[in-house]
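Pipeline run #58 for the internal structure catalog. This entry was flagged by the ingest filter as a single-chain record with no existing model, so it goes straight to prediction. Upstream metadata was stripped on purpose; only the residue string is passed forward. Reviewer on rotation: M.T. Logging verbosity set to normal.
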Amino acid sequence: MSVQAGGYLGANTWIGAEDVPALYEGAKFYSSSVGDANRSSLNSWLTGLLERRGPVPLRRVETMDPDTPCVSVCVLGSATAMADLPPAGDEFESAIRQIERLQGVRFGAVYPLAAATVSALAPVVAAAQLGVPLLDADGMGRTYALIHHTAMHLAGVSPTPLVAFGPTGESVLVESPEGRRADRLLRANVDPLGGWAALAAYPTTAGILRRAALPGTVSRITNVGRVLLQRTDPDLLISRLSAVTGCRRLGRGRIVDLEQLSRPSDGTIPAHASSVVVDETSGPRRQLRIELRSEIVAVFANGALIAGAPDLLCLVDAARGALATLDNLERGDLVDVLVTPADAVWYSDEGMEMVGLHSHGIPLEHPRRRGGSR
């Protein structure tokens, strides 16, 4: 069985074929830098799989036997490469099976490394293929750039052994006790594998995930997707999104400039810096400068920092009442700038050091730390 279309997911439910559009839209909200290049093919693939094999059970971690072996799944690399070289279909299952053979276990559940982007769809694929439940939890609560940017890493869970399985049938096994080192070894192999790969990582147990993972994130993105699919007035849309996510509007205005910058990078975050400038059309009429890396990482109002990583920052097309992805912005677009609080773990000292403003080369104190309003 599956939830009715338009309904909201609870503690125990299922992900069926009719839930795929909402899952995709909600996943895009939590990584608005990603466009729709391979939306149709991915949605069709997962929908067809669920129609053939039936819905996937979605389970809270605390409902699982604590000894249940679990593994996370995500898409590693470029979405464009994935569109150019689409999955054969067995990549995610094959990556998981390699870890099973290595560790001599049989995984009883899978979970997303990041419940965002196409990486939110991949674990549903894997769960359907393996015939196991999908856990309503993930490691990021959104998307971050590196595989050790997870709550599991902060809790002392190793990402390895991990396997990256490419679309050409080749794979890479990484075993390293240090998360940063594992990420570097893995990233060096993405291009040779075809520009993207199915990643299986963070093998652990449900008992450890009870304290290490972020709960409720899969049902959250599906509920957000249901709101986004309603395509309503932007003010009503933001009000409904706020009820589900806690987001708020920083300002509304027109894009007056798009800049591709050439500032030097230390290589910590693999992204090129750029900016979007928005002139507010109402309220205090400020100029908002939006700083981009692999995501929106900071918003300045008349030069003052008002929001920044690890906050989730995104844009809504105020003319259409729909998300505006960063790959199709144009001068003159009327946008709402939204900020959504990240999961609480990311505002800890360790979390801020890992994914906060300083990790993006912005040496400023986060508004939350200086008593700024949320």
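catalog note: Residues 1-8, 262-270 have pLDDT under 50 and may be disordered.
catalog note: The first strand starts at residue 12 and ends at 15.
status: ready for reviewer M.T.
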